Amino acid sequence: MTTATGVALPARRGISPRQRARRSRLIQYSILLLLGVVAALVADWPQIGDVFFQPTLIGDALTQGIGRALLNTIVYTLGAFLLGLFAGTVLALMRLSSVGPYRWIATAYIEFFRGLPAIIVFIALSLLPLAFPGLRIPFEPYGTAWLALGLVGSAYMAETIRAGIQAVPKGQVEAARSLGMPPSLATRRIVLPQAFRIILPPLTNELILMTKDSSLVFILGLSDAGFELTKYGRDLANTEANLTPLVVAGFAYLLITLPLSVVVRRMEKTSAKAR
């Protein structure tokens, strides 16, 4: 386009990418708000309150042993996590070993337990006394829960730890060896401390997943003293013919997992700033 004097004017441009992105977000937010309003109008709120949030049953759930179930859940999770962390570290070092049989054993273990559902491991361990009469896992039912969750968790943690070890600059290890430090000592004092700082966020995520997997402990046929949150909530829900106790148990899980999620995000931000 030109003016009367013959001077060319710049061609009119369309909307900028930033404006296009802003318009797209506005449309998405509008659709989301519309769906929320429709859901709120269609939902039967009295029925939802009666089935999921009955005040009397909330009080019963909070006063009839949920504290013990919460503590059991934490104990099951922490014991299994510590066992899995130790076994996972050993497996990661075996996986990186120059000795062939060590690598083969570690690889077979990791692939086997990563591909096997945790519930199958629980069932297999609960049936061990039938296959081996007289066999008793110590600290029942905690011992069986720790072992089952630890076996599965160690397979996942081994791969995470292996990645952390490989992320440590090789020059540091070579410098340590040039100073006469034995390889095993260099691994303990130089490689592993740095590797664990690198993989701390994913390990915390594994702890969150293990907390939720602790709900599989119900397979062991627990007594009241060994109930974890899911078993406690389900039994009370069956007794009362109402789902409110399960909702309370779900919120109790959030008391454990939400703070861990916040810790993970902060560690990831700190790690990103350090890089």
TrEMBL record:
<feature type="domain" description="ABC transmembrane type-1">
    <location>
        <begin position="70"/>
        <end position="264"/>
    </location>
</feature>
<comment type="similarity">
    <text>Belongs to the binding-protein-dependent transport system permease family.</text>
</comment>
<keyword id="KW-0472">Membrane</keyword>
<dbReference type="InterPro" id="IPR043429">
    <property type="entry name" value="ArtM/GltK/GlnP/TcyL/YhdX-like"/>
</dbReference>
<feature type="transmembrane region" description="Helical">
    <location>
        <begin position="243"/>
        <end position="264"/>
    </location>
</feature>
<dbReference type="InterPro" id="IPR035906">
    <property type="entry name" value="MetI-like_sf"/>
</dbReference>
<keyword id="KW-1133">Transmembrane helix</keyword>
<keyword id="KW-0812">Transmembrane</keyword>
<feature type="transmembrane region" description="Helical">
    <location>
        <begin position="115"/>
        <end position="132"/>
    </location>
</feature>
<keyword id="KW-0813">Transport</keyword>
<dbReference type="InterPro" id="IPR010065">
    <property type="entry name" value="AA_ABC_transptr_permease_3TM"/>
</dbReference>
<feature type="transmembrane region" description="Helical">
    <location>
        <begin position="26"/>
        <end position="43"/>
    </location>
</feature>
<feature type="transmembrane region" description="Helical">
    <location>
        <begin position="74"/>
        <end position="94"/>
    </location>
</feature>
<dbReference type="Pfam" id="PF00528">
    <property type="entry name" value="BPD_transp_1"/>
</dbReference>
<keyword id="KW-1003">Cell membrane</keyword>
<keyword id="KW-0029">Amino-acid transport</keyword>
<dbReference type="InterPro" id="IPR000515">
    <property type="entry name" value="MetI-like"/>
</dbReference>
<protein>
    <submittedName>
        <fullName>Polar amino acid transport system permease protein</fullName>
    </submittedName>
</protein>
